[in-house]
Design brief:
Layout (H helix, E strand, L loop, with lengths): L5 E6 L5 H11 L5 E8 L13 E8 L3 H17 L3 E7 L1 E4 L3 E9 L2 H18 L2 E7 L2 E5 L3 H8 L5 H10 L2
Parallel strand pairs: 1-4
Antiparallel strand pairs: 2-6, 3-5, 3-7, 4-6, 7-8
């Protein structure tokens, strides 16, 4: 994405939410809201709620393509909701249970735009970005596919984007 207000970072190392918050405030000084979503690796297998714990997730991605798809998702969110700043950090490699895996930060002049843009970005990251996850633990290895609940969450954004923007503007 050519805009400096939107960045995507795919990395193995962890990130510091405090540092990221300071950057968001610095990059968007006129924002009235900064919304963060930070996803953590759950310690249970995704297939069911049994007591067997996972040790870690192994994430792979398609370099270049993943960043491009993430950029497109952020661009769509900006067109729909408008914001001053957005940043996505997604980790790859071996990530242990309870560690941070993804961060979506959105700064906007209005809170509703920031909340909706953040949720839109996260819903589409789960269904459209090229990440492959493998659970590793007591039961061995299990590659994860897209979940129906994630697909259903992303479908709600297929409604008219203008009606959602109008809602945001009336809640100023």
């Amino acid at each position: 994405m050519s805009s400096s207000k939107c960045t995507v970072v795919i990395q193995e190392k962890d990130f510091d939410v405090g540092t990221e918050y300071a950057q968001a405030c610095s990059e968007a000084p006129r924002a009235g809201a900064v919304v963060f979503f930070v996803g953590l690796v759950r310690d249970l297998y995704d297939l069911d709620s049994n007591d067997d714990a996972i040790d870690y997730l192994e994430l792979e991605h398609y370099p270049g393509m993943t960043e491009r798809l993430c950029d497109e998702i952020i661009e769509q969110a900006d067109q729909r909701f408008g914001f001053d700043y957005a940043r996505v950090i997604h980790r790859v490699g071996k990530i242990y249970a309870s560690e941070q895996i993804v961060m979506v930060a959105v700064a906007s002049r209005h809170r509703d735009n920031a909340f909706q843009a953040s949720q839109f970005i996260m819903d589409y990251l789960k269904t459209r970005a090229t990440f492959w996850k493998k659970e590793v633990g007591a039961r061995g290895e299990n590659w994860l596919g897209r979940k129906n609940k994630d697909l259903n969450a992303s479908k709600r954004w297929e409604t008219s984007p203008t009606s959602q923007i109008e809602l945001s503007e009336t809640n100023e």
